[in-house]
């Protein structure tokens, strides 16, 4: 059985950038639903005994329900991990060097990421990924992610942002760009750096 982990911080910990009610519904209702639906979709099938990352990496072999809900479970677990209260600022060390080398500057990387999130039509995600030993910005529709064998731009995500309306609508309504701008204040760069290190070791 797949399980929902508790958040590594309180629902109100990301205020005022991401409000408590949004976090409560996002984690407790939306993420929980992906977990429940994934359990239903894998019940009594070989997928029930396969670890989630392996399922994700070979998602073309699985059903649409497993793609949507397995992706939803993986993406949200990842999303909670790359945020923290009083986050933001800039990364340091090897990650900052790689950002400067690949994008020219931290601000240029943010602009590309913001654009990927803003222009993703409908629901999906913006990503900073390691692709061919380089840092690249990408986006995916629905609950797809760059680890899946079906996406256009494959890679290892080190930062990701949920741009589904359920992630921001209560507080930001139609102002997705404001939500994306606020997100930078809660990024956990220590976690992103650890992801980068693991992806490039
Ligand atoms: Mn979401």
Topology:
Layout: H1 20-42, H2 52-57, H3 64-81, H4 93-103, H5 106-119, E1 124-131, E2 134-141, E3 156-162, H6 169-172, H7 176-183, H8 189-200
Antiparallel strand pairs: 1-2, 1-3
The structure holds manganese (II) ion (MN).
The site of manganese (II) ion has 7 residues, from helix 1.
Description:
By secondary structure, the protein is mainly alpha-helical. It folds into 2 domains: 62 residues, Orthogonal Bundle (Helix Hairpins), CATH 1.10.287.990; 107 residues, minor pseudopilin epsh fold. It contains 8 helices and 3 strands, in the order αααααβββααα. The protein has a 3-stranded antiparallel β-sheet, with helices on both faces. The longest helix is centred in the first third of the chain and has 23 residues. The structure holds manganese (II) ion (MN).
Q: How are helices and strands ordered from N to C?
A: HHHHHEEEHHH
CATH architecture of the largest domain: 3-Layer(bab) Sandwich
Name the CATH superfamily assignment of the largest domain.
Iron/manganese superoxide dismutase, C-terminal domain
CATH class of the largest domain: Alpha Beta
The name CATH uses for the topology of the largest domain is minor pseudopilin epsh fold
Structural class: mainly alpha
N→C terminal distance: 31 Å
| Percent of residues in β-strands | 5-15%
Bound compounds, each kind once, are: manganese (II) ion
Side by side, the strands of the main sheet go 2-1-3
Number of DSSP E strands: 3
Largest sheet: 3 strands, antiparallel
Mean pLDDT: 97
Tell me the number of helical segments per DSSP (H or I, 4 or more residues long).
8
Low-confidence stretches: none
How large is the radius of gyration?
A: 16 Å
Which descriptor suits the 3D outline? globular
Helical residue percent band: 40-55%
Count of discrete structural domains: 2
């Amino acid at each position: 059985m797949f399980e929902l982990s508790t958040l590594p911080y309180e629902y109100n910990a990301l205020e005022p950038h991401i409000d408590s009610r949004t976090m409560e519904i996002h984690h407790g209702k939306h993420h929980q639903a992906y977990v429940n639906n994934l359990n239903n979709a894998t019940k009594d099938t070989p997928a029930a005994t396969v670890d989630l990352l392996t399922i994700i990496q070979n998602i073309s072999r699985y059903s649409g329900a497993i793609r949507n809900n397995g992706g939803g479970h993986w993406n949200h677990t990842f999303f909670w991990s790359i945020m923290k209260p009083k986050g933001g600022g800039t990364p340091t060390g090897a990650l900052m060097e790689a950002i400067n080398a690949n994008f020219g500057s931290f601000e240029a990387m943010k602009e590309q990421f913001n654009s990927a999130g803003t222009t993703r039509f409908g629901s999906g995600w913006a990503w900073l990924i390691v692709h061919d030993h380089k840092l690249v910005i990408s986006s995916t529709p629905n609950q797809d992610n760059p680890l899946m064998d079906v996406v256009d731009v494959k890679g290892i995500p080190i930062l990701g942002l949920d741009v589904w309306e359920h992630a921001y609508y209560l507080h930001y309504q139609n102002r997705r760009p404001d939500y994306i701008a606020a997100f930078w204040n809660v990024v956990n760069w220590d976690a992103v750096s650890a992801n980068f290190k693991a992806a490039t070791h």
